[in-house]
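Quick log. Single chain, no ligands specified.
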Amino acid sequence: MNRPYLGEFEELVLLTVAMLNEQAYGVVILEEIERQTGRTVSLSAIHATLQRLEEKGYLNSTMGGATAERGGRRKRFFTVTLGGTRALQEIHTTRNRIWSLIPKTGLA
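-> predicted structure:
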């Protein structure tokens, strides 16, 4: 089995989608990442990453209903797939294992 590769931003987006559960769509994901990290993020970066994660099989998307507040436009909602969950779990396990190997004197 190939090990999943996620860039740091992909990991942040995937984690945020998982955290937001079934309420994850572009603007809300952007706002949550900015709130959690203090980073300024562009909506186009979010959309490109969501598309890439969906192509990798880590996300699924569905279209929500049109709303008047959005001028009749529909939202695309994202959910984490089983493959996305496994990728996040493997990354989490790997990071924890490496952190546990750092000697107490290793980080000043």
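The longest helix spans residues 82-101.
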